[in-house]
Design brief:
single chain, binds 3-hydroxy-3-methylglutaryl-coenzyme A, 38% helix, Peroxisomal Thiolase, Chain A, domain 1, 9-stranded mixed beta sheet, globular, 3-stranded mixed beta sheet, alpha/beta, 2 domains
């Protein structure tokens, strides 16, 4: 590794993704709960929930994603100087999730290791800190391992139940082989109780309708700041993709509608930009459900797969509480190979599909 403390070209050098081995279609959940399946599939835009079997959890997801990222990277574990895990599925009030993962990976020594919490925004914050750590020169040429990992479960019969999911995205932050990450970013936050989980409680409390409003307000503010004095429609049009945190696909559609209204786009333009720039990146999200911190990064990984050098995309991160941030990524030479895509797609197709009886038993466990 280059031990200089001069700022280094920085970005995502490698990606690794992981999902758990079980899945259930939301139509099966609708039958269990006596709900019209169209409410979940059309009303929320959901398709499948990724679920963990007993004894399988957030550390397993984070470890698998990290191993995949490390395997497709040219560096060594010894070259990592920072490991940060963004999660809201912490196992301990003190010991960071990064310690559980570092233990399994053999990451130790002169390494800064910590957990980041800000609901679904935590993984993005970990990435931003890693990028800024490299850009400042403090990394002295070393790499960061950033992981966004969560198991998203609501209380049985909660209105959020159809949006459940689980997954992990690991990113090696070093040279920008997969994508460079812009230092310039557009943050927006307001203290709010839209979705929260008090200490000691197993499931989140949600003010559902309020959470939709908070998300849309944050999206309109961040995109307004990003567009600045430019023609926002032309700027959006020039992107390969606009990637969003996706608690459920219809949330993203509502946010794009709000963004379109704020820029006074015609309904036709908004619908077209949503279909062309946003929907393709949601492919893996609809197969996984909400993976909280991982959600945005599954969309970014999908959008980067097959991109040409110089293709630009934006990433919009949202975390309840609430905080949001929007910034650009530019594809590098390794995006076209997309080494992260095949293992994820194999894992998605190999998942065991469970029915409502197995789901009830799983939740009881
Ligand atoms: P609900 O209130 O039971 O649902 O739960 P609803 O009655 O609002 O219906 C949902 C949609 O389905 C509506 O569409 C209905 O019209 C439609 P809309 O009017 O909104 O376009 N619908 C139907 N469509 C077709 N056929 C039917 C039918 N019936 C109804 N028969 C809610 C919805 C989102 C509140 C619930 O799922 C929830 O609480 N989810 C969790 C919270 C959430 O995801 N919020 C999103 C923003 S906050 C966020 O993103 C952060 C988060 O990821 C956490 C973090 O940061 O850590 C959640």
């Amino acid at each position: 590794m280059n031990e200089t403390n001069a700022p280094q070209p920085t970005g995502i050098a490698a990606l690794g993704l992981a999902v758990p081995p079980l899945a259930m279609d939301v139509t099966e959940l609708a039958a269990l709960r006596g709900v019209d399946p169209d409410k979940y599939t059309v009303g929320l835009g959901c398709r499948t929930m990724a679920l963990c079997p007993d004894g399988f959890g957030v550390v397993d997801l984070a470890e698998t994603a990290a191993r995949r990222a490390l395997e497709s990277w040219s560096g060594r574990v010894e070259d990592i100087g920072l490991i940060a895990v963004g999660t809201e599925s912490a196992l301990d009030m003190s010991r960071p999730l990064s310690a559980f993962v570092a233990d399994r990976l053999g990451v130790r020594g002169a390494v800064r290791s910590y957990e980041v919490k800000h609901a679904c925004y935590g993984g993005t914050l970990a990435l931003r800190q890693a990028v800024e750590w490299r850009a400042s020169g403090a990394a002295r040429g070393r790499a960061a391992l950033v992981i966004a990992a969560d198991v998203a479960l609501y209380a049985p019969e909660d209105p959020g139940e159809a949006t459940q999911g689980a997954g992990a995205v690991a990113m090696i932050v070093h040279t920008p082989d997969v994508a460079s990450v812009a230092l310039d970013a557009h943050a927006y936050s307001e203290p709010a109780f839209d979705f929260w989980r008090p200490v000691g409680e197993s499931f989140p409390r949600v003010d559902g309708k309020f959470s939709l409003e908070c998300y849309q307000r944050a999206a309109a503010s961040c995109f307004g700041s990003w567009a600045g004095e430019r023609d926002a429609r032309e700027a959006f049009e020039a992107l390969r993709a606009a990637c969003f945190h996706a608690p459920f696909p219809k949330m993203v559609k509502k946010a794009v509608d709000r963004i379109g209204e704020s820029f006074e786009w015609s309904a036709e333009d908004t619908a077209r930009l949503y279909a062309e720039k946003v929907v393709p990146a949601l492919e893996w999200n609809t197969a996984i459900g909400n993976s909280y911190t991982g959600s945005l990064w599954f969309a970014v990984a999908r959008a980067l797969a097959g991109a040409e050098v110089g293709d630009r995309l934006v990433a919009f991160s949202y975390g309840s509480g609430f905080g949001a941030e929007l910034f650009e990524l530019t594809a590098g030479p390794a995006a076209a190979r997309a080494e992260w895509a095949a293992p994820l797609e194999a894992e998605l197709s190999a998942r065991e599909r469970i029915d409502r009886d197995r789901y009830v038993a799983l939740r009881a466990g």
